[in-house]
Amino acid sequence: MNPELETSTINAPSALGHIVLENLSMSFGQGVSRIEAVQAIDLNVAPGEFVSIIGPSGCGKSTLLNVVAGFATPSGGQVLLDGAPIVGPGPERGVVFQQYSLFPWMSVRKNVEFGLKMKGVDTSKRETTARTLLGLAGLLAFENHFPDQLSGGMKQRVGIVRALATSPQVMLMDEPFGALDAQTRVVMQQILTNMWQKFRLSVLFITHDIEEAIFLSDRVYVMTARPGRIKAEIAIALPRPRTAEMMSSIEFTQILHKLRNLIREESLAAMGHELDAGGLEGFSTEVGPAGLQHLV
Amino acid sequence: MASLPLRVFTPAGADKPAISAPLGPELSAVPISTGRAAVLPPAPRAEPSAAARLGEVLRSQLTTLLLGACSLGSLVLLWHLATTYRWDFYIRFANLPTPMEVATQLGMAMENTSFIHNVGMSLRRIAIGFAVATVLGVGLGLAIGRYKLLRQLMFPAMEALRPIPAIAWVPISIMLWPDNEVSIVFITFIGAFFPILLNTVAGVQAVDAVLLRAGQCLGAREPQLMWHVVLPGAAPQVFTGLAVGMGVAWVSLIAAEMISGQFGVGYFTWEAYSLISYADIVLGMITIGVLGLGCSWLIRAASNLCLPWLAYSKPAGQS
């Protein structure tokens, strides 16, 4: 089986997947306890572009992603996908979660087939697509395993492949490698950039790992401490396809220093706020109850 | 998750190429070299020979079996001694049948159609009552667990009825239903219903919200989400409810048969008391025990069959 041929039929290149956030703001709670999570966000992702958002903890990066995914409705401004406002989640926007979120009762292949099944694609076609994608991610041998039999890196590859299966125009990734160890993370970044090279869809990628953001992205947005705003927007002019060697190049290092300084200011500001607010309170927006569960 | 992005690293470090050496631009080469090494369920430790393993398994099984036999054997022995020598110290064993008498009675009962008929009647009542309780309990539980409005509307009523034991329903049930048979099935149903309902509700509420989001992102609409995500997510706890429900169903059934029944093992046992047929009383008790055990074994088997993935989600030993 020629993967190159197979995938081109799954994901025909298109000029779709244009995300625009205009003057977006988001707040939680009412009255005195009202918290401004993000403010006046103008952000866009061109079709086929890889864009990352980095920022200190609690700056509302995940909130932005939730809005684009359709899990949350903005308090102000608008979110458009190819000119149409986003209402609720949908299969044209694939989401990869930090906690993998694979269905533990389904085999790896059934997980990948899920989106296609919801679309009403017939069994044999589902199977072919799932197997092709799993083959690309090097997981074909594990198609009949349950997710709990896999390592974290493998689970997240299944998560990515599952999101790709419905041929989305957009991929939204919320710190997808945040739960992985450093070595696995480096490998996963390489796999992701290679996959992106093949599929060329728009990606909105949330991370707090600066190197990761530079390595993967065409552009990086830096957010301020809460209430989150766009502090800077930096184009990453490194050539494609990206390779690990580029991480030691002068260009990479320069961008890294620049971004790290920007982030450091904001992290210090964020910590200052947290200390003022009495410790843990500053985490509440980003971590939330579900996130805390994950920590316990 | 909340760590600060101030990681220290060496930009021009010589170790970088070493880490990334196996990463060619070709995808296929990467995952195979890393994935295999990561985790595989059959851990690649030195496998002992098949014969040695079999021996080990047999030995541990044999020990379990022997100890089990000892445990049961001493119970029967104690029973035998107490009844044969008619122990009498506040508790009186004088009128109780000996194990041999009960065994003889069992032999006679097996040739007698009325005993078999009684067992059949009880099993039928359990089957119908439990099936209805499962369908209603799981169905309602899914809806109540998922929809807040429904929960607020129905839960108070359910909570009001729940503490009333199934046996307390006997008089009302006789008045409520046109014939005795239906009323006994109803009591069996009541016994099984609440454990199933409550466990299903709890199971639905415990389904990870991230899985629901994942389902929605992949295009699942509400009915699909219910069937493909909520139900399987709640399934482990649903089966807990079924197991508990089965136990309570038997308790309720036997009580109902003793009080109002015609036919059934409970009726058989109580009738034996009225007829001063002591061996039959104990035979009835043992039959009830065996039937109950069989039913809960069935539930466990069904659970293992339906939830094969659970074997991996709780790694034994967590090494």
Note the main attributes of this structure.
heterodimer, A: 296 residues, alpha/beta, Rossmann fold, 2 domains, 6-stranded mixed β-sheet, 4-stranded antiparallel β-sheet, globular, disordered C terminus, B: 319 residues, mainly alpha, MetI-like fold, 2 strands, flat
- By CATH, the topology of the largest domain in chain A is Rossmann fold
- Provide the residue-averaged pLDDT of chain A: 85
- Tell me the fraction of residues in β-strands of chain B, as a range: under 5%
CATH class of the domain at 117-306 in chain B: Mainly Alpha
Give the helices and strands of chain A as they follow along the chain. Answer: HEEEHEEEHHHEHEHEEHH
CATH architecture descriptor of the domain at 117-306 in chain B = Orthogonal Bundle
Strand order of the largest sheet of chain B: 1-2
Radius of gyration of chain B (Å): 29 Å
**Total of DSSP H or I helical runs spanning 4+ residues of chain B:** 13
Quantity of strands of chain A, as a count: 10
Quaternary state reads heterodimer
Examine the coordinates and then state which fold CATH places here, giving the name of the CATH topology of the domain at 117-306 in chain B: MetI-like fold
Shape of chain A: globular
Superfamily (CATH H level) name of the domain at 117-306 in chain B: MetI-like
CATH architecture of the largest domain in chain A: 3-Layer(aba) Sandwich
**Global shape of chain B:** flat
